[in-house]
Amino acid sequence: MKNRVINPNVSVDCVVFGFDTQSLKVLLIEQKAVEGMSGHQALPGDLVLNDESLDDAAARVLKELTGIEGIFLRQFHAFGDPNRVKQVQDLDWLKSYRDQPEARVITIGYYALVKMDEFQTEASSFAERVFWQDIHEIPELAFDHNSIMQRALDRLREEFENRQVGFELLPEKFTLSQLQSLYEAIEDRELDKRNFRKKVLKEKLVTALDEKQTGVVHKPARLYKLNLEVRSKSPVHGSFVTVKF
């Protein structure tokens, strides 16, 4: 055991999901540029400090990007492929930030759910620029971040179905059209409007409010809020009918 090398490099990478009432978004960063090369696009993340837990490290990363605390955050997978940071362009970038750029790094993946209209993204110690990207238009990312993002999306879809995780993306008051758009965005499929509304109202997943939309050019729609008691008991979308064309 004395001759074996102990590798202490552990990081966290965060897949931050947002919803703009129509489509699912992911928060990406542009890494700080180094001399002779531009920064790569990547998921937000950082090495874990010696005096912090994994959860605290992920929360720190998100606070730097959003300025807020208490974001829904869930650990979903560990990524330990020995070759996950072996690409030449990734190593070139790491040389400017680490004494041992080729050292193996094990990263812990977290996914977060945020309301996009509740904060302004901002640059941080590890990001030159922060921006939202449509889930269907994700570019090639640094390291193995495309794989991490896909694994997070798979987990979000699984937990949305089983536990109703995902409603954190909606405003407190929403229309049934916005709710349907959320289901369609996460599940990546179209749902029949009539059947969707019938099922949601039958299961009492939402409570109708005596309020309607304001500031819209079309006919204002009624607003609803989530019925937290019903939500915790039963998922409702398993039998929704997919629209066929």
TrEMBL record:
Keywords: Hydrolase. GO terms for molecular function: hydrolase activity. Pfam families: NUDIX, WHD_NrtR. It comes from the Bacteria. Residues 7-157 form the Nudix hydrolase domain. SUPFAM superfamilies: Nudix, Winged helix' DNA-binding domain. InterPro entries: NUDIX_hydrolase-like_dom_sf (IPR015797), NUDIX_hydrolase_dom (IPR000086), WH-like_DNA-bd_sf (IPR036388), WH_DNA-bd_sf (IPR036390), WHD_NrtR (IPR054105). This is NUDIX hydrolase. It comes from Phaeocystidibacter marisrubri.
